[in-house]
Amino acid sequence: MPDLQYQCLNFSSNSLKDGLHRWPGFTFIFSACRPKSRGEITLRDVDGRKAPRIQANYLTDPDDVRIMIAGFRIAQEIAATEPFRSLITEQLRPTPDVQSEEQIEAYVRKVGNTVYHPCGTCRMGEDDRAVVDSQLRVRGLTGLRVVDASVMPAMPSPNIHPATIMVAEKGADMIGRALVN
Q1: Is the distance from CB of 132 to CB of 122 less than 8 angstroms?
Q2: What interhelical angle do 62-79 and 101-111 show, nearest 10?
Q3: Same domain, 102 and 124
Q4: CA 64 to chain CA centroid, nearest Å
Q5: Do 95 and 175 share a domain, yes or no?
Q6: Is 161 one of the catalytic residues?
Q7: Which of 41, 85, 147, 162 is most enclosed, with most CB atoms within 10 A?
Q8: pLDDT digit string (tens) for 119-152?
Q9: Mean of pLDDT over the chain
Q10: Are 156 and 2 contacting, i.e. CB atoms less than 8 angstroms apart?
């Protein structure tokens, strides 16, 4: 199973919120397929009326840091091969002086971000910490199921879309059977 997922984007941008650069460029992005770091979602108030507190906890596991540093190094190797090498007139992000393991780690921590594949916030299982059971029913409530990526007890590798469709299909079947009975 892969540790990293790479993408080569045919545009250049510091942030999609800021828009694209005015010059032609490309961007390598990579991400850990199965990060070990775990975030946390907690309530801000007892009534649940305020937005929850979300703490992503990116790169809190040393293995995730190791994988991202390796990913950075592999991206450097790819950029040094043709046809990329002859296309590069200037390296903007990171600057070429980012070379040491400490510099790479600091850079990855600074610019690292989500790839919008959240899952596991309502973990499925049969233990006391599980939010939903194996039938996707919310523990302690009658008539409520969770049928999305939040029930996944572990992150699938590398994208969650196919697994989310499978959870939804299975959940729809479970709900359909419950309605018939």
Answers
A1: yes
A2: 100
A3: no
A4: 12
A5: no
A6: no
A7: 147
A8: 888 889 999 989 999 999 999 999 999 999 999 9
A9: 90
A10: no
Structural domain span for residue 100: 4-111
101 and 125 together in one domain: no
Pick the catalytic residue from 6, 28, 94, 117: 117
Domain identity same for 39 and 124? no
CB 26 within 8 A of CB 87: yes
**C-alpha dihedral over 67, 69, 72, 74, to 10 degrees?**
-60
Q: What is the pTM of this model?
A: 0.79
Instruction: Read off the pLDDT of residues 83-108 as tens digits, 9 standing for 90 and up.
Output: 999 999 999 889 999 999 999 999 99
Given a cut of 80, whether residue 115 has pLDDT beyond it is: no
Are 107 and 155 part of one and the same domain?
no
Q: How many residues does the chain have?
A: 181
